[in-house]
Amino acid sequence: MTPDRPLVVTAGEPAGIGPELCLTLGQTELPADIIVIADPDVLRTRGAMAGIDVAVREIGIDDVGKTRAAAGELLCIAQRFPKQPECGRPDPANAQTLLDGLRHAVNGCLDGHFAGLVTAPLQKSSINDAGITFTGHTEYLAELTHSKLAVMLLVAGELRVALASTHLPLREVPDFLTQDKLREMLQVLHDELRSRFGIDNPEIIVCGLNPHAGESGHLGSEDIEIIAPVVRELANRGYMIRGPLPADTAFTPATGHKDAVVAMYHDQGLPVLKYAGFGRAVNVTLGLPIVRTSVDHGTALDIAGKGSADAGSMIEAVKLAAKLASS
User: Fold this and answer.
1) Structural domains of the chain ordered from first start
2) pLDDT value at residue 14
């Protein structure tokens, strides 16, 4: 199915490969119309550098839905940077403009102009260097949409990995995890697997926090005291849910079918997901009133402007956003 409105794409860190990924979309047959929020001068300059022959046409928000891109053309709502970006060198002076672009994209979704949002990667360190506290897209989008909880879900084909905690130092994860937070996160995951992905009765496997899921309490108490009670409670309420399982076995075929695996922290789940589908995986934010997808990689500052960026994950993010928006 095709969404009845275009998707909006934010071009991300201008010193990275985001502009090139967006330009490649202008050469690609997609299941939805797209409009990019970016600096059109950066897009044109980067296209010339990277050898991507796509025309950039500026439009206003009132033109959305009234005009369509021609073949080899990219529609752009202008968000110009105060400092001219340089490949490989993020400038904190551009941080606020980047966040303003995200805000405009979100507001456009909330106002009904766009069917969903697709984001190219940002350089979090540069935004923080500007004095703006920023932990990532997921948390910032939850703030913009006044959402109680946003859940990060990575999708690579039929493999789906959700995170109970996102961008936290590892030493803070055990204190962050509580029964209430885990219960709420699992409820969001369960409900959106049903509503957005069309899975009537999703089967969820929950990883333990500690090695061997705590080894009956000998390797940590969190699995017994926090994770297991929540899993039992939701199972008693009719959820198809198992855990806590040792993370080193949760992803193996021996655990049987599962619609999603829940990792307790970022690097417990993402290495498996990226090994299985790097360059084609998609980041989805659940718990928002809008559809949002993103790429599965970073800004790739070292290859910006060289014409070697792989747009596979960006294309898959657009395809999945179109599918979720249509549902």
Assistant:
1) 1-147+288-327 (3.40.718.10), 149-287 (3.40.718.10)
2) 97
